[in-house]
C-alpha cells in the first residue's frame, strides 16, 4: 500500500515545521501496519514548510523556484519520518525524486520494490521531481509504479465531505464516493490531477484522519474507516 501523508498534519500543534510528538505518533502507526505484514510506501507532503503556489504569489520568488523549495521541504519531512520509523524498529529508506546523493537514494522503482519486499518502509521524497505538481499526484504516480493495491491519504480530516469541512460547519461526510463525483464537484481534499489519475487507473483511495489511533491499520484490514473513493 501507499500512504500519502500530509505535510501540514506533521506540524501537529505548530503552525510551521515538525512536531516531534506527532512524528513519533505517526511513525508508530506506520510501523504497526508494516509489522502486520503489509508492504508500505509513503509519500510525504511539504505543506508544513513551503507550498510553491502560495510562496510565489507575491512575485518575489519565481514559481519554479518556490516549487523546488517545496520539494526540498518534503525531503526534510522524509528524513525526519525515516528516523522516527526506525526508532520503532522498522528499517526505512528514503528515495528522492531529485538528486540529493549525500542524504538519500534516488527513486529507482525496482529498488524501492525490493526494499519493501525485504520489510523496509520506503519514504518517497521530493514529489514527482517536477514543479507545478503536488505530492498528491506524486502519491498516485508512485502507487501505480509500485503496483499498490490501495492508496491511503492520511490527513487532518476524517474523510471526504461534500464541501470543505474546515470552512463549512454543515459539510456532510461521504462513506464512499465515486471519482467522477469528486472530480465534477471539485472536492478539494485532493488535487484534481490526482483524482483523475486514480479514476483512469482504477486505484482505490481511502481518505482518513491519521490522528485517530489505529485508523491506518483498520483501513488496511478492510474495516470501515474514513471515506472510500472508487468506482467510476
Ligand atoms: N470536500 C472536502 N472534503 C474533505 N476535506 C476537504 C474538502 N475540501 C477541502 N478539504 C481540505 O483538504 C485538506 C486535506 O488536504 P491536506 O491539508 O492534507 O493537504 P495536502 O496538500 O494533501 O498536504 P500538505 O499539507 O502537505 O500540503 C483539509 O485541510 C480539508 O480542509
Ligand atoms: O511533484 C511535486 C510535488 C511537490 N511540489 C512542491 O512542493 C510543495 C509541497 O507539496 P504539497 O503537495 O503541497 O504538500 C508543493 O506545494 C509544490 O510547491 C512540486 O513542485 N512538485
From TrEMBL:
CDD domains: AAK_UMPK-PyrH-Ec (cd04254). One of its GO terms (cellular component) is cytoplasm. UMP binds at residues 46, 67, 128-135. ATP binds at residues 4-7, 47, 51, 155, 161, 164. It holds the Pfam family AA_kinase. One of its GO terms (biological process) is 'de novo' CTP biosynthetic process. Its EC number is 2.7.4.22. Pathway: Pyrimidine metabolism; CTP biosynthesis via de novo pathway; UDP from UMP (UMPK route): step 1/1. GO terms for molecular function: ATP binding; UMP kinase activity. Transmembrane segments: none annotated. The keyword S-adenosyl-L-methionine does not apply. It catalyses: UMP + ATP = UDP + ADP. Residues 2-209 form the Aspartate/glutamate/uridylate kinase domain. InterPro entries: AceGlu_kinase-like_sf, Asp/Glu/Uridylate_kinase, Uridylate_kinase, Uridylate_kinase_bac. Keywords: ATP-binding, Cytoplasm, Kinase, Nucleotide-binding, Pyrimidine biosynthesis, Transferase. It is found in: Cytoplasm. Inhibited by UTP. It comes from the Bacteria. Its main location: cytoplasm. Belongs to the UMP kinase family. Catalyzes the reversible phosphorylation of UMP to UDP. Homohexamer. PANTHER family: URIDYLATE KINASE, URIDYLATE KINASE PUMPKIN, CHLOROPLASTIC. This is Uridylate kinase. The lineage of its organism: Bacteria, Bacillati, Armatimonadota, Fimbriimonadia, Fimbriimonadales. The gene is pyrH.
